[in-house]
Amino acid sequence: MNNIELKRFWEKVKEELTGSLPESVHPWIYSLEVSGYDKGILTVVTGQAMARDWLRKNHSEQMNSILAKISKNSNARIHILYDDKAAKQLKKESEKIHKKEVEAQLKEQAMENLSRMRSEVNLNLKYKFENFVVGENNKFAYDAAIAVAKNPAVKFNPLFIYGNAGLGKTHLMQAIGHYILFNNPEKQKVKYTKTDDYISDFISNTRKTNDSVLNMSKFNKKYTDIDIILIDDIQFIESKSKTMERMQQTFDTLYEKGKQIVITSDRLPEEIPKITDALASRFKRGLMVELTPPDFETRLEIIKKLAKDNDIPAETEALEYIAKHFSKNVRELEGAFTKVCAYAEFNNREITLELAREVLRCKENEKQITFEKIADVAAKFFEVDIKDITGTSRNQKVSTARQIAIYICRELMNLSFEQIGEYLNRKHTTIMYSHEQIKTKVSTDKNIATAIREIKQALKVI
């Protein structure tokens, strides 16, 4: 009987044994390893001395009877041996299993704690460091966030993360919260809040008439009786003087108590309209890190990870096509991928380069957008000289063309106000003002909205 035949024979015997012997001894039967079969003697080994002794004493006759029936040999016998090597291996495997069970229990407990606190801190469970794709555009910010998560309030306090929409500011911020909660869920109190919610909460408490002192006391405790505060989109505090005063008090209380403060914004503190110098200086007290649009390699890695995490098969060429044509931000990139996936699912098609082209209809030879190109198209639209746009002319038509060029440049190219200011040889505050002017008018002034739409069409971006 060769090894394969022997193992098959033993599996058949073992099946009969577990079907006949008490369930309490089944684990011992499963652990038996067949060693040989010669002249009706089936030798099996175990690493458990108790198993050998118990089976020999209490079930030897029944085991031999089952073997005799299967082998069709009335003299067949099962011989159980204790093996020291098997005992060591069994102990090693048992310790390994126990370690895995303990780790699983700890992980489960941590996840329960995290889920339990999710409603309190309002974190999105998908925003973790493990899900964040690191590239040259965000490595410094990522490293800073990791450092803060591992050692809150030690070096970088506050941590101010800024950059345009869709680049991962909220993801990094919430990843800090997740890391702290997951690794130390009981000792660290984390609170995530959007600035809009903070403002609404503050206004709501100031308007309550029953007991204003008590209301504000509860409000202060809510935002200062914590260890880590994560404040998202601080730019929305613009022009709200009383809320700024309260925010400054919140900041000072936390900072003096040695608590970690993390803030995100789509711009630098001094670019937030009508922000007080005192509050802006506090935001700049720690470390300021910028997120910029990802390069092609990073965008491709983001798309590949998205496909892998969702178990979506796709041609590499299709993913490269998406990564190439959606460079503005991660949100736009993921949206394009989702659109292609949806079309593929609805039409029962594979995700190929041909499908991606068909769905997204990107222009393969689209020229790179530059400020010069935007300014040139804006000048032609308003029938002015491009030199006037980049010059000092205060003519109404020129000023409007210049402001719209600044607005479109900010929207399409993700340049900072300083970068646009360098091109126009103007202060960033002037650029910021021009941008805000058009941003305000675009939804109320049909002429401005039409101009922006037609300039974008001329640029072939819509």
Report on the structure:
The chain has 20 helices and 8 strands. With 462 residues, the chain is α/β, with parallel strands linked by helices. It has a 5-stranded parallel β-sheet, sandwiched between helices. Strand 6, helix 9 and strand 7 form a beta-alpha-beta unit.
Tags for this model:
462 residues, alpha/beta, 5-stranded parallel beta sheet, 20 helices
Task: Give a quick summary of the entry.
The protein contains 20 helices and eight strands. The protein is α/β, with parallel strands linked by helices and 462 residues long.
For the CA atoms, what is the radius of gyration?
34 Å
Record the strand order, biggest sheet: 5-6-7-4-8
Compressed to H and E, one letter per element, the order equals HHEEHEHHEHEHHEHEHEHHHHHHHHHH
Helix amount: 55-70%
Low-confidence stretches: none
Q: In total, how many beta strands?
A: 8
Mean pLDDT: 84
By helix and strand content, what is the structural category? alpha/beta
Q: How is the biggest beta sheet arranged?
A: 5 strands, parallel
- Please state the overall shape, judged from the principal axes of the Cα atoms: elongated
Gap from first CA to last CA: 76 Å
Tell me the number of helical segments per DSSP (H or I, 4 or more residues long): 20
Beta-strand fraction estimate: 5-15%
